[in-house]
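Box 3.1 — From sequence to structure: Xylulose kinase
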Amino acid sequence: MEDERRDTALVLGLDSSTQGVKALVIRADNLQVVGEWSVNYDLDLPHYATRGGVHHFKDRVGQMDEGEVTAPPLMWAEALQLLLEKMKKADEGTIFGRIKAVSASGQQHGSVYWRKGAEASNLAQLLNEAQTGLPSDLMHALKHGQGAFSVPNSPIWMDSSTTPQCRRLEEAMGGPQRVAEITGSRAYERFTGNQIARVIEKQPQAYADTERISLVSSFVACLFVGRYAPIDRSDGSGMNLMDIRTKDWSAEALKIAAGDTSAEELADKLGNVVPSHSVVGKVAPFFRARYGFPEDCLVIASSGDNPNSVAGMRLGLGDVSISLGTSDTAFGILSDPKPSASEGHIFCNPVDPDGSMAMVCYKNGSLTRQHFRDLHAGGSWDEFNALLQTAPIGNNGKTGFFFKEIEITPPGASGFFRFDADGKTVDSFAPEVDVRAVVEGQFLSMRLHASNIGMRQFSSILVTGGGSSNTNICKVVADVFGVPVFKAETSNSASLGAAYRALHGWLCRQQQVFVPFSEVLSAAAPFTKVHDPDMAAHEVYTAMLPRYEALEKECLEH
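Predicted structure (token representation):
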């Protein structure tokens, strides 16, 4: 425990992710982290027989349909209880009594189906201390009667079984671009609306028995308040069901997803969407009695892991975060979004009710860079960096596109393509040219596609993930975007973002007015600067962009 004062107000951020659940507690006055705890589904709850936190169709041939990937919501609830027990053992549980607000992050797109009567017969047990007494534990409450869930295994973001539902949505709405313009993204298999549509078709009785549909994030909030909690706008905009302009459900999208059932019924099952800083209730008596949460501890609307990461990385207008991992991702805050069927997603901003955030995803990230490290540098990053520095900025006009896996951005791109300075295809490059091409190309692509969906003015870049430790790669990032590059110290941006958002919601309620998120973060320690841009190099990259875009289109024609 790092906290020395025993009277300081604290806030709790939770992250119910794919492989486990984490808790992070920070001080409300200076945002310092007090403690972190975690539970791993596979290791700590082996009786659910998950691998990587999920049930995968490849592991259960004959039991699951092609493309199905699910996880039991009972496991998520049991993991939450185990996590809180771990926290209780720390510092003899005194930490709970100082927590003023709680919020959660949830793996995005996953859906939980509450059985009819679950609020009255299951969740209500967490509230009824004055009647029949509180349940012995959370699992007892959720298993009571017929059980809380009409669909015992929740489809999650890894599920790819909904292609027919995606095509139906796009055809009925007038094409993928119109779906993107309304909902923020073209139809994606993992998006919740398409998962719900499949449940309606494949499990009609289970859907008929469903009273409320939660996202993973709002599911956690339901447990904490002991009743159904609303979906927030930011996570809700990752469902292909919400109109990102009106910030409410799209009647057209609901009608298509509902199929032969009623759009009004689906709307009732989803409930209202609320701003992400909303107070959705107070911590239920069960958690107060068992762990010592104070009676006035607020529960702030939960949100998805990507929106919470944006909050945790403290992005403002013009800031971009680039995650360099197995897959590469660029996040940004923008004021004038340009939804696109061919690149990225637009979500409602989790910390500004009037703003938007954008996300551009790449499947070919670190594994592709490692391929060229192994091919040309004997597996050595030092040698890879030496080759990168050997080739000139801009690679003398030589450009490479390396889609080792079928790419997300641009969609469907596959294979390796190399072009000489005249734009003619060539079979190979010298090792140093290959290395520079794979690094430069990724960040030129990010700049191009980010600008296409509205991220056009850049003020700083925050790098995270394994690749962020490579200062040579970070230098290329700074030069391509023409702004300073900083590095984040924490890897738990989602749980940290949930904690920041808990504090934000608490302060908004205290002051009875919306408090700008930047004011909440005024005490946060600055990020570490890694590189300033070389503006001469930036001009070279800016001049390359039109040619890069044209060559990318040529790759897609192959």
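Summary of the box: The chain has two domains: 1-307, 366-487+531-557.
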